[in-house]
Design a protein that fits this description.
Strand content: 15-25%
Shape: globular
Number of domains: 1
Helix content: 25-40%
Number of helices: 10
CATH topology: Rossmann fold
Strand order of the largest sheet: 8-7-6-9-10-13-12
CATH class: Alpha Beta
Distance between the termini: 45 Å
CATH superfamily: Vaccinia Virus protein VP39
Largest sheet: 7 strands, mixed
Length: about 290
């Protein structure tokens, strides 16, 4: 089953060069139903091209499908939260948390960009964090009204947070939706404190399932503008000034694709060998190196 997405439809779009290296020579990567992805022949980044313009992307999250998306998030909230918690554990988040909680008397600060209904922020608040979220979909109002969280309803760059505002920035299944991940990483670098961390979770185009299913892969959806490998994401992070410290993957086979005994084996191997369906990258800002 594919990830939730708005329906494929015609809209304003244009051809763009490779976001990672600026090259303009591509080959077909994935042929999906009604759209497709190309791979840069120079650096290997996979992107939708032509690509919808920014205004169209933002409109998707305030369209007639907004309530459908909120319902989808609420129905799957517990499962999504558990996956986020496990991903953060794989990335070493909880070990870092101990140090940060001891260092900050009033609690370390965390920004969750694309925080959906705010379940992860509520979890972190209960652990002693000072929490802020960014969410441009209808989930924002739910997080504000039901959970009483500080969640902003503007794209990250438009919130104009002060320099060095946060100890940690989280972005779970967000970066692949953005027209300009470079701008997102630059803004994240600016608002992170020196020595702060960003944790990015995103589908892994180099994973086993992506290679197996091609255009039918569950993460090859209309709302995903970029599909990263660990190599292309680490390159983009490095160029934004970050040092990628850790990459973990998970998900060898989706439930229902194989007998449970085989799924368990594949899931173990995906973690150990790095061919999982989803990855999390932990990167650090250190301007004093």
């Amino acid at each position: 089953m594919k990830t939730w997405s708005t329906p494929v439809r015609a809209g304003e779009s244009g051809l763009i060069p490779c976001l990672c290296c600026g090259a303009s020579l591509f080959r077909q990567a994935l042929n999906c139903e009604g759209f497709g992805y190309v791979r840069c022949t120079a650096c290997g980044l996979v992107q939708m091209n032509p690509q919808p313009v920014k205004d169209e992307i933002i409109a998707r999250y305030s369209s007639a499908f907004a309530n459908d998306y909120l319902r989808y998030e609420l129905e799957n909230e517990a499962a999504f939260l558990k996956l986020q918690q496990l991903a953060l554990k794989d990335a070493g988040f909880y070990k870092l948390e101990k140090t940060l909680l001891l260092r900050a008397k009033d609690g370390p600060s965390v920004l969750d960009v694309g925080c959906a209904t705010g379940a992860l922020l509520a979890f972190l608040h209960d652990r002693g964090w000072r929490v802020t979220g960014v969410e441009i979909s209808a989930c924002c109002e739910y997080a504000r009204n039901e959970r009483k969280l500080d969640v902003r309803n503007l794209p990250l760059e438009e919130n104009k947070f002060p320099d060095e505002s946060f100890d940690v920035v989280l972005a779970s299944h967000l970066i692949e939706h953005l027209n300009d991940p470079r701008s997102f990483l630059a803004e994240t670098f600016r608002i992170l404190k020196d020595g702060g961390y960003v944790f990015i979770s995103t589908p892994n185009i180099s994973g086993f399932q992506a290679r197996l299913f091609g255009g039918s892969w569950r993460s090859a959806i209309f709302d995903h503008l970029y599909l990263f490998s660990a190599r292309t994401l680490k390159r983009m992070l490095k160029e934004a000034g970050f040092k990628a410290e850790r990459v973990s993957t998970w998900g060898g086979l989706a439930a229902g694709l194989a007998p449970m005994w085989l799924k368990k084996i594949m899931d173990i191997l995906a973690k150990r060998l790095g061919f999982g369906d989803v990855m999390i990258v932990r990167a650090r800002k250190n301007t004093r190196l």
